[in-house]
Each structure stands twice: as structure tokens, then as C-alpha cells.
Amino acid sequence: MGIIVSLEEIRHVLKSDMRILVGGFGISGTPLSVLDQVLHTDIENLEIVSNNLGDNGMGLHKVFMEGKIKKAIGSFFTINKEAVVAWSKGELEIELLPQGTLAEAIRCGGAGIGGFYTKTAVGTALTKDKEIREIDGQRYVFEKGIRGDVALIKAAKADKLGNLVYHTTARNFNPVMATAADFVIAEVDEIVDVGELDPEHIVTPHIYVDYIVQSTYIKEGSEYVEVK
Amino acid sequence: MKLNKREIIAKRIAQELEEGDVVNLGVGIPTLVSSFLEGKKVYLQSENGLIGMGPPPEENSVDIDLIDAGKTPVSITKGASFFDSADSFGMIRGGHLNVAILGILQIDKSGEIANWAVPNQPILGVGGAMDLVAGAKKVIVASTLFAKDGSSKLVDQLTYESSGERKVDLFVSEYATFMFTSEGVKVVDLYGDLTIEALIEKVGLPLLYEVEIAK
């Protein structure tokens, strides 16, 4: 069975110039162990699609600080002070989308939909160069679907086939990102035998998942700590 | 007990909510609304994927995966549900949320708001603000009426970046509640220590009102 791999084995999947979708909202639902592996590679010029760029020196924040990110597409970068500075110096390209538009664009990317019209952000600075279309008296803006070369996601449990279940609000962008990349790596807290997950509770069917890795982070009180 | 400005606003907004409403509370003053519900049952939606958000958890039961849209740990109530970000914003844009309560930087006389881009700062964060403005069945603004420099946040025309074309339903401030009609801004009620004349002078815009509230 080839889909359960060590953290080191994921490194060969990641290449320079790739567009990588990264799950998580703040740190909740972020594949922290997988992102640490990026630091052990010499890849660079990454285009990252994620709500924000990590937090508190964890996750994507570390990857960014190592200078590996060329462009970030997401909804909220103002909490990443260093990212704001890098953007103002022209060292980081940022494409800002409303959070719901970001999520829907990824959903479309994974569902064979080229783009969609949304009423969100019509009449704002974020859509001033985009196509506006009136449908039944309401103005909408056209947004393209988003796909990635790779998606790095986090789930609570996987079975050995790759079926996934999530934990509370750590679900966030992970299920849609699982559908929208050519190669999907899921970091999980626990791997169980096939048949142990209730089919009624599976959120991401195994068809979407290429690699499963065991997380090396656990929750301790109000933080995530790495265990070796 | 004397309420401060923020509590006056939150309490007034709580009166607008109906039993069974699904409500999204923005950061800041909106989060205070849940303290003034007086037993009225509403369901709090958090756009990162939760309906049935409860109060902050006891320190020893914090689960840092379980957070609100401001990334603060929360609890859940009986009957809560989790869903992904695409579903969450689908329900927001799709008009399934009864009320969104949002803070603002500015609101113009038509009810269009600016609540995401801080002036003179790079525009690098929007989050879910524009989706909530565009999609909730009812949008209520919770904000103090005057900025720190004393200027009115209720203005003729926005000078800050708009959050979208959709006009809000109600603006609740610490002095008065406003609604936005085709004839102009209407003062729905007045409860602070400003008379209607003083309010009109400080805001600097013509305001409509019924004679009864001016007493």
C-alpha cells in the first residue's frame, strides 16, 4: 500500500514554481508537519493559495520567512506583518480575494467549473478590473476557478485508503482544497484501518487523496507542539 | 447598572433579533450582542465553519482547533454543526443567514458601508466582510457614531474603500438608530444625551425623524 508515506517522502512531490494550496484558518487545520518539510527542500518561487500566511512563526509563516514564496493568493494577510513589509518592497506579490470568493473559486477548480459570478465585492476596489454582469437585476462579478499543482491539507483521521474526517473548525478550507489539485497530501493526527470510519461521517472520500502522512504535532493546552 | 457606549449599542441591537435567528457577529461591538439576549434563543454562525457557537470555553477545556472567525477559542452549544469554508460562504451569500452584525469605519447616507480597508494602509486583508455585506438577509451596523477625531462616521459620501453595493438595513449607534430610505437617512429612535437638533448638527447631514422621538 503506497499512500501512507513518511514525511521525508513527500519532498520529491514539491517543486519550484508550483502553485500550492494550503489548508487552514490561522493555525487551525494547518498541515504543520508537512509545511516544515518544505524548509528541508531547496524549492522556491512558490505561489501559495491559502486564507493567510500562517501565524506566530508556524506553518506558512516559516516558509515565507525562508523566502520561498513569490506570490500569495488569499483573503487576509494584514496579520502577517512581515508579509505586508515584503509586499510594500515588491518582494511578495499578493492577490486578495474575499474569503467566500476564495473558497468558491477552489470549489469550482475541483468540480470542473471554469468560473462563476458572485455578488460579493461588486462595486469595490477588489473587482474594479473584473467583468461585471447583470443577472435578473442583480450585479455579479466573474471570478475564475482556482486549481493547484499540489494541495497540502490537514485532517483529524484517515483510514488506510485515504478517506478523511475532520475535527471541529479545523475543517475550513481543507475539504475543498482536497478536490482542487493534481496531487493531494493529507497530514492527519491518526491513521486507522479501512472500515473503522463510519461511511456516513466521511467528509473527503479517498479518491481525492494521494499521500497520507502522520502529523508530528499535538495540541497541548493553547498551543501546538512538535513531538519527535 | 450604567451601560457604556458599546453596551448601549449591543443592547439595542439585541432587540432587533428574533427567536431562532441565525446570526453572524463581526469582531468588536457585535460580539457583545450575545450578552443582551435575555433568554432569546439565536444561533451564532462563524464563517470559518460553525453554527451553534457558544461562549468562550473554560481555560482547561480550550481546544485550539475550535475557534471563531477572529481566531479566538470558542465552545459549541447543543445542536451545533460544522461545515467547510465553501459551504459556509454558500449559506452566507445564498441568503440563509438571518442577520449579520458588522462594525464599520464609515457609512454613507444611502447605507453603503466601508468596513475593511484602513485608510493609508496597504489593502491586504478583507476576510469575510464583503461576503456578509452582500449576502445576509439583514445587515445591521454596530458602531459608535463618531471617530476618535470627532468626525461623524455617517457621511454624505464614503471616502474610505466601499465594502460593496448592498445597502445595510440599520445602523445602531450609542445615540440613535438610523435606517436608510429613498428619501434619506431616518432616525428610528434616539436614546443618548443628544437632542435631535444636536444630533443633526454633529452629523452634518439632513436627518428625517418622526415628531415623537424628538421629545
Distance between the termini of chain A: 24 Å
Mean pLDDT of chain A: 96
Write the element-wise H/E pattern of chain A from the N-terminal end onward.
EHEHEHEHEEEEEHEEEE
Give the tally of structural domains of chain A.
1
Q: Structural class of the secondary elements of chain A?
A: alpha/beta
Q: Which strand order spans the largest sheet of chain B, edge to edge or round the barrel?
A: 4-3-2-1-5-8-10-11-12-13
- How many distinct domains of chain B? 1
Q: What proportion strand of chain B?
A: 25-35%
Largest inter-chain interface? Answer: A-B, 55 and 45 residues
* Structural category of chain B: alpha/beta
Assigned CATH superfamily of chain A: Glutaconate Coenzyme A-transferase
Give a written overview of the molecule.
The complex is a heterodimer of chains A (228) and B (215). Chain A is globular. Chain A has a single domain, classed as Glutaconate Coenzyme A-transferase (3-Layer(aba) Sandwich), CATH 3.40.1080.10. Chain A is an alpha/beta fold. In chain A, 50% of the residues are buried. Chain A has helices at 32-38, 60-65, 81-88, 99-110, 174-179; strands spanning 19-22, 46-49, 69-74, 93-96, 115-118, 132-135, 138-144, 148-159, 164-165, 181-192, 211-214, 217-220, 223-226. In chain A, 17% of the residues lie in helices and 31% in strands. By secondary structure, chain B is α/β, with parallel strands linked by helices. Chain B has a single domain (5-214), classed as Glutaconate Coenzyme A-transferase, CATH 3.40.1080.10. In chain B, the strands form two sheets. A ten-stranded mixed beta sheet of chain B has the order 4-3-2-1-5-8-10-11-12-13. The relative contact order of chain B is 0.14. The mean pLDDT of chain B is 95. Classes of the chains: A alpha/beta (228), B alpha/beta (215).
